[in-house]
Amino acid sequence: MLTLGKVLRFDEVKGYGFIAPKEGGDDVFMHANDLLDEKFLYQEGSEVEFFLQMGEKGPKASEIRLVYQPSSHRVTRGAEVDSAPTERQPVFLSDTDDDAFEAGPQDAARFRADLTEALLERADTLTAAQVREVRGIVVELAKSRRWIAS
């Protein structure tokens, strides 16, 4: 049965934790092998949906997926890049940019960071897995069109 709940605690290193079901009842065991998103995203208070099963030692969650909520794990512009943009790299427009797009390949890491930021800010219902899938498709397209360096 698909169930909603909140992560009570999750130890990324040990790979397990517990979920409090929204409907109440016993805490539900969660294991890293049952996570559908990156394990670092499962923080205390994260809303999740999961299939409730009875394990040998009590209730156990499987196919655990994050339910969207604003995240403190936002990628910030340039977070994956050590140096400032160089001349002739594309400038990606935001709501406040008035600059035009400049020609020339951009560093792939910077492009991924900009793309991730844009997806998280403008498509806030995407899951982490969906963001990764869309980002992978767009990055491959950008490489094939030589919009970014391979």
TrEMBL record:
InterPro entries: CSD, CSP_DNA-bd, NA-bd_OB-fold
Boundaries of every CSD domain copy: 2-66
Domain of life: Bacteria
Pfam families: CSD (PF00313)
Protein name, as recorded: Cold shock domain-containing protein
